[in-house]
Amino acid sequence: MKAFKYHAPKSVDHAIDLLKGADENTHVIAGGTDIIIQINQKMIKPEMIVDLKQIDELKYIKEEDGLIKIGALTNFTAIERSEIVRGKAKVLSNACGEVGSPQIRNLGTIGGNVVNASAAGDSITALMALDASLVLRSSEGERVMKIQEFYEGEGNSQIRKDEILSEIFFVSPNDNTLTSFTKLGKRKALAIVVLSSGIVLELEDDRKTCKDVRISLGAISRYSMRARNAEEKLIGKELTEENIDSCVNEISEMTYDSVYNSPFQDLASYKGTSIKGVVRKTFTDILERV
Q1: Model-level pTM?
Q2: 3-state DSSP call for residue 31?
């Protein structure tokens, strides 16, 4: 392994100062669960690593001003167990509970998951359904972008080498909003996602009609995707079996097309069919609580 400089700042300001002028050989880590594999497999050869794990100011979960805010260095276990998240955003607590093993959930951070931009990132699918926003900080200041925008354009994500992800936030779901997450994995332990779905569903006061819905799908493309055409099948309509079936069928077609036009074309039929069961299970969990 090639020698590299290692820094472990204890404040955001110090980290940002270290990253001034950072180039492609500079890498930021949080939990380090992804980058260690990349180094061992010689996928990257860092010249400098900035380890953020000692920055306690980025470890928090709070609700204020109608928003749920999560520090980027908060680990998956803390999010899974958070009363705030479990009570108002089950889609995210369930997703974080599905990440790897207990050891990985204790070490891995939600910020690292987002920035690493894995196609199998469980928390990303949930955050997409929550229409989350990201706060990026550098010596030039702060910028905020929607998570979907973060994965558009060239490269794995839109974070610059001189930036750190400091916070993730989303509107706190109201009392008429129910959420859920379902994951299909290859095996029971340390399951790498094959398919996943996250749903955030807001009901009208009659508790029968869909006022708004956001559906996010994982592992059908390079990044998690919103199923916007499928969402339109439900908005303003009663949550009948017929309307849900129409939504699920639209998702199946979307999944087939997305996978067929990817390097994994041979999985298109399997994923296009399997996603129906995954999404139906997510809807069932929601409807049982209506």
Answers
A1: 0.91
A2: coil
